[in-house]
Fold each of these.
Amino acid sequence: MYMSVYKYIDSNMFIIVGQKEAFVVDPHKNEEALEVLKGVDKVTLLLTHEHADHISGVWWFKEHFDCTLVCSDACNTNISNPHFIRPLLLSLTIKEKDVKNGTNVLAEFKKDFVAQTYCADTTYSDTFSLTWQGHSIGFKLIPGHSVGSSLITFDRKYVFTGDSLLKDYPVVVSFPQGDKKTFLEQTIPFLERDLSPNVIILPGHGEPFLLSEIMSDGKIHVGFR
């Protein structure tokens, strides 16, 4: 598994390569990925949610590979909306970092970012599953961070959580369409019930970790912002 960190905002992209095919979770532009994907003909793009730093590379992968895009219905509604895909919050976050660090990363980001709408090839309202080269991939809508946030499992061993379950950062529920009440009443109980403490969490930000590292007495403990 290949992990890449988006240079502008420290969000993660994950790539798993199979026989002439690969799947990519939360794509961003990364020239090194072309080397990782050498010999690959088809790429399946999986989105954990619709925020700009997690969809920024969809267009780039589509330019280089035959791609299929998979996400939740709610995520698809937002990424097909030209007003939603504008990276306003992302730009604000980068600007705040520039002020703090005395840098000008925002100028480079504005030149590099492509605000483009998309229409997913496969969507689901709540749950979905597929088999990929003998591996089982599952999808479950887990709203709270955003309306279109999803959990993506790989052989029930690896779990891609986007920004809905992090170890080193609080879960942000204060963005537009975020909902702390829904997260606490629906998403957290589902995660505690459905996931083994031994699964490896591959988060949208920060390093991978075992779910057990943020659990005690069968309960998941996360901060909120």
Amino acid sequence: MKWMKEVAEKGVALGPEPWHMHPVVFLDAMKPVNKQCYCYKQGIVDRPCQSGAVDVTKDDFEVLAAQLGVEREVLRAIAVAETGDKVPFKYYVRGEKHAAILYERHYMKRISLKLGVSPETVRKVESSEPDIMHSYDKSYRHGKDSQQYQRLLRAREINSDAANMSCSWGKFQVMGEYYHHLCGSIQELVDAQNYCAMQHLQYFKVFLVKEKRMLQPMKDKDWLTIARRYNGTGQIGYDQKIENAYNSLKNKW
């Protein structure tokens, strides 16, 4: 701790010199440790934050680029392609910060069956609520941001874990299905993604390295391979979208 020495009046005997904690430092020291700081829990930072980062900064991209040996523009190009590189939080409910999401109904169908939802229930939901469960259809349009959240809420009524795993989360829109690379449970991932943009970056990092093994294609700027591994083999034009974003960032970082 820092201390401020008391200035005694000249000629007045005070005995041992007293020391006092500066009021500002005292208040700072009294702040409770934020047990919700996931970066601190994961050993990424030395001190817990108090509110969570609202976005990933240019400096953050540069740090990750140095860690992975990948150009910073390649990493950020994916953020541009996925979310326009905008602040990755929404307020689906007034006053409640929530990571930007995209709900994927075909994931919900597959994961629900995997987690034990009965085939009968799946068939019923697919028939009556096709926006909640359905087979993959490349012509499907996801709709508005607000609809994603409402679908997530409805899907949670069927199976909460399956619903959370069936959304892509945050600035880089990584599917919740891969939570185990970073968190002990899907709910922990959801809480972390809703809390801090640095958790979006961490999830992006482990997704690239552990799930998709994308470092070499990113180093080679192999846009087609990047697009297929990140967005699936059925991607259409995503490779060009990333390349265009990369070229723009090379011109103006």
Amino acid sequence: MITLNDTHFIAAGTNRACYVHPEDPNKCLKVVISGNNKESHREISYYQFLLKRDISWAMVARFYGTQASNKGEAEVVELIRDNDDNISHSLDHYFRILTSEDELKKFIDLLIELKRYLFTELIYVKDLNAVNIVYQKSSNERGKLVVIDGLAYPNRFKALNNIDFFTKKKINKSWKHFIWTLKKRCSSKYHKNLKILLIESENQL
């Protein structure tokens, strides 16, 4: 059993808390703190589905299974770190501190890459938002976006999850909702250009 304490703590949401894995700094442990295991069970089931499909984990935090801890059963997931080994910050963090149009354009380009990836790999993120996506810095100064939370089956009827058409419809709906919420994450002075860039990005896909 893994023992977790405050030194391992990263962050907490309404339902779960996240800790650095004591035995591997490149993994994290998600544990339920609300008493409601429904979200975790749903996510684990979908992760197992993705493992069977042998997807690329290039832009989604890799799932390693579950492990017992002193705080209950935990999901073991890849902990995304920058090239300086610091834990990567959320897209929400970067949108709130935007300082230039060039920086905004860089993130729009990265969002285009993320959308292509999700559609190519047919990965549905039910709770797609700027907090559940991190920006991973790399030595090439470009970096990439990585989804770290919020995954779930796209359809209630599991048979439909093996049909690309229905999965793509759900991904597209989720993406459109997400993309237009981004303007709430940055200064109002960028809203006009953000809208223009987002429209242009849709035309590139």
